[in-house]
Design brief:
Largest sheet of chain A: 7 strands, antiparallel
CATH topology of chain A: Pnp Oxidase, Chain A
Number of strands of chain A: 7
Helix content of chain A: 10-25%
Helix content of chain B: 25-40%
Low-confidence stretches of chain A: none
CATH superfamily of chain A: Electron Transport, Fmn-binding Protein, Chain A
Distance between the termini of chain A: 9 Å
Number of domains of chain A: 1
Strand order of the largest sheet of chain A: 2-1-5-6-7-4-3
Largest sheet of chain B: 8 strands, antiparallel
Oligomer: heterodimer
Mean pLDDT of chain A: 93
Largest interface: A-B, 54 and 61 residues
Number of strands of chain B: 21
CATH class of the largest domain in chain B: Alpha Beta
Structural class of chain B: alpha+beta
Mean pLDDT of chain B: 83
Radius of gyration of chain B: 27 Å
Strand content of chain B: 25-35%
Number of helices of chain A: 3
Order of helices and strands of chain A: HEEEEHEEHE
CATH topology of the largest domain in chain B: Beta-Lactamase
Shape of chain B: elongated
Number of helices of chain B: 11
Chain lengths: ~150, ~475
């Protein structure tokens, strides 16, 4: 279960990717622009631009296996959330501000590693699909000796 | 959209400026995702991923060799997907060495030498390259600020394929080098030429000291402080690593990589793993790319050239051959000049047969220059016998052989009233214990002269023709010997 502190970290505006795989165990992945931790930390809603979601939709519908990886520069804190896909739908209009704000915080954070603000501003952000994932395991992934430890 | 492999054109993706993401899958079908510090270009169909820690990705690859890497081009912002197939792990060879040296240099800056290190370079075949539809390139960057404008200019230059190491630039540098008539002029000409011809504004040359494994800055350009006399040790930082490996090291996106290493350091400390001492960066406080070049002549390390930039990836992999050639050329030029100065110095003194002049014949005392003027009561120079170093008014001036030389000169000047000296008499002085072959005395004297100019300009060493120089004092000097 995701506690409040971890939830705040995940929703802070950091790098997020979703990993999936197909029936041939070929790994796949795409960008997530924002997440919301829901249901008392047992589920995550990952907001993905429509074109990004399209890349992993078939995998999710085929086998339901999903993983979300998060990383925050400049301290490189990172974790991975393993889960099971529960469903996908067009994100609600009310979510747009939440998603855009989280993505904008990520862009601003990129400046701490020397990337100018405009670098990723041309990328798709909205409209999004909301991908619902039930959390099954949490792992620390901050680089160093503790990477891989269960949270 | 799948594209023909064109990894060569994706050079900026492989600089490690924006973290890449690696996706793998376990045998039981559980996907895994992780951020990577670096994806290295190997050849037109292969990339290498650094293996630094045993982790889930590594275990997955052992079970299922398929992987996907997502990269971002920091210039165009285009996102890329590379489908990979694991081929082998290398623990030696050029790819491993290149990656390991870069990581070790960063590790020593972060006090993580031996902890933050490359275990293997994992080589993957690239099966396909695709652009990411939702991560399109920016059509153009709006130059809304001076920085944005400068970046746009730089990017446009890069897109034009504006190479740094052109024949014209090399020829220009060569002309400058040929004009130099002394070691001092040669070193300055090299650094001036690197700026004028190649645009490298921050550079320094270090030479080996008489102590094995220690290098000292003999010339620098583009730094607020001259930095002459600053030392580096074998195996520490980019300079020490270049000296140890005798291979060029290129680090791009240094700020991000340092932050990554510091994150590792923090976790290591939390686990009670003691980090070693952090090595300060050699020049700029926050360089974003560094290039270290060994100056080698027939296997002998004459020195190390270090170039820094605040641009995140000023130095490109494709420049490697040019950089190595440049290093060899500079090394030969420096060594030739060292040998020429030595033989010319000896010949000149022998031909003149003149005894060194007394201080009464010396030129008028120089006017102190710069900020470090002598205190009213004169200067105290203290020689610490144990450390073989000299402090001026309590501040470090110089150590090792140049310190011994200065102390000898000061004592002779006081005892014999002489102001002029010859290189030859220093060579013959047994107390200095100079090696018979390649003593690099002229280089040591140049270092001493520059260090005095920098720290106490009222004590000066002035060349008086080949093989002769004067020690001039524009202030009273008290000499003190301490254990």
């Amino acid at each position: 279960m995701i506690d409040k502190e971890l939830a705040a970290f995940l929703e802070e505006g950091i790098a997020i990717q979703i990993g999936t795989r197909n029936a041939r165990l070929e790994p796949n992945g795409a960008r997530v622009v924002a997440v919301r931790v829901v249901d008392a930390g047992t589920r995550i809603v990952a907001f993905m631009p429509e074109r990004a979601a399209k890349v992993v939709t078939a995998d999710l519908e085929d086998n339901g296996q999903a993983t979300l990886v998060f990383a925050r520069p400049p301290d490189e804190r990172s974790c991975q959330v393993k889960g099971v896909f529960e469903g996908m739908a067009g994100a609600h209009r009310d979510d747009e501000r939440f998603v855009r704000d989280q993505w904008q915080r990520w862009l601003e954070r990129l400046t701490t590693i020397g990337l100018p603000l405009p670098t990723l501003q041309g990328w798709d952000v909205w409209p999004c699909l909301a991908v619902r994932v039930r959390v099954t395991a949490l792992f620390n992934q901050t680089p160093g000796p503790n990477a891989g430890v269960v949270l | 959209m799948a594209q023909p492999l064109g990894l060569e054109a994706m050079a900026s993706c492989f600089q490690g400026l924006i973290p890449a993401a690696l996706f793998t899958c376990a045998k039981d079908g559980t996907p895994n995702a992780a951020f990577l510090s670096h994806v290295d270009y190997v050849d037109a169909t292969h990339v290498a991923l650094s293996f630094q820690f045993f982790n889930k990705s590594k275990r997955n690859i052992a079970e299922n060799p398929q992987a996907l890497v997502r990269l971002i081009d920091p210039d165009t912002s285009q996102g890329w997907r590379l489908k990979l197939h694991y081929v082998r792990s290398e623990t030696e060879g050029p790819v491993f060495e290149r990656m390991a040296l870069r990581i070790e240099a960063i590790a020593s800056y972060s006090g993580l030498k031996g902890i933050f290190r490359l275990l293997a370079a994992d080589i993957y075949e690239v099966l396909s390259v695709e652009t990411v539809a939702d991560e399109p390139p920016l059509a153009c960057l709006a130059p809304t600020s001076a920085a944005g404008s400068a970046r746009q200019t730089q990017l446009e230059a890069d897109r034009r394929g504006n190479p740094v190491f052109t024949m014209e630039a090399l020829q220009d540098l060569s002309t400058r080098i040929h004009r130099a008539d002394s070691l001092e002029r040669l070193l300055d000409s090299i650094l001036e030429g690197l700026e004028a011809s190649f645009g490298f504004e921050h550079s320094m040359i270090l030479v080996p000291t008489i102590e094995e494994g220690t290098f000292v800055t003999i010339a620098s350009r583009g730094y607020p402080e001259m930095g002459v006399g600053a030392e580096a040790r074998l195996g520490e930082g980019i300079i020490g690593m270049v000296a140890e490996a005798r291979k060029p090291i290129r680090i791009s996106g240094l700020i991000r990589q340092m932050l990554y290493a510091l994150a590792v350091q923090k976790r290591a400390q939390e686990q009670g793993i003691v980090a070693s001492q952090r090595i300060p960066l050699p020049g700029l406080p926050q360089p974003d790319s560094q290039l270290g070049v060994p100056l080698l002549v027939r296997g002998e390390l004459v020195g190390v050239l270090c170039i820094e930039s605040t641009h995140p990836y000023r130095f490109h992999e494709e420049d490697k051959v040019s950089i190595e050639l440049l290093g060899s050329y500079l090394a030969i030029a420096i060594q030739n000049m060292q040998l020429q100065e030595r033989s010319a110095a000896d010949a000149a003194v022998e031909a003149s047969g003149e005894a060194p002049r007394k201080s009464t014949q010396a030129a008028p005392p120089p006017k102190p220059r710069g900020k470090a003027a002598a205190p009213k009561g004169g200067r105290e120079l203290a020689y610490y016998l144990g450390e073989e170093c000299i402090l001026v008014d309590g501040e470090y001036l110089i150590r090792s052989l140049p310190a011994k030389i200065l102390w000898l000169l000061l004592r002779r000047r006081t005892a014999e009233g002489r102001a002029e000296f010859t290189n030859r008499e220093l060579r013959l002085d047994k107390s200095l214990n100079l090696p018979e072959w390649k003593d690099n005395l002229e280089t040591r004297l140049l270092l001493l002269r520059r260090r005095l100019d920098q720290k106490c300009p009222d004590i000066r060493i002035i060349p008086r023709g080949r093989g002769r120089f004067a020690l001039e004092l524009a202030c009273d000097v008290a000499l003190v010997e301490r254990p």
